[in-house]
Amino acid sequence: ALSGDYTYNVEQTFMHDENAFTQGLIVDPNFPGLLYEGTGLYGRSSIRRVLLSSGSVLAQMDLPSQYFGEGITLWNGTLIQFSWKSKTGWEYPLSSLD
Fold it and tell me: How would you class 39 by CB atoms within 10 Å of its CB: exposed for 0-12, middle for 13-18, buried for 19 or more?
């Protein structure tokens, strides 16, 4: 087990939608200035493409209100979003968020 005091330095901060309940975050492997973000909360879950430098949401697809988005991953050029509570998942080609 690790013990002891640890320190950190904040190197940079970025703007972010304060209403987004982030449940998953991926840096676009082809464009490091872009993020994919999965958000949660019933009635507010979505998957988004976000410009890191400004926090601007460039594209967004909302989940139906009965689902709580809980995580995302990128696999073979497809974003996959999960709702563990509902045992449901969605696939999005990256091009669907262009």
Answer: buried
Its pTM stands at 0.82
pLDDT digits (tens, 9 = 90+) for 37-69: 999 999 999 999 999 999 999 999 999 999 999
Q: Distance (Å, rounded) from C-alpha 91 to C-alpha 85? A: 17
d(CA 14, CA 90): 28
d(CA 40, CA 58) in angstroms, rounded, equals: 18
- The answer to whether the CB of 65 falls within 8 A of the CB of 55 is no
> What's the CA gap between 37 and 97, in Å, rounded?
11
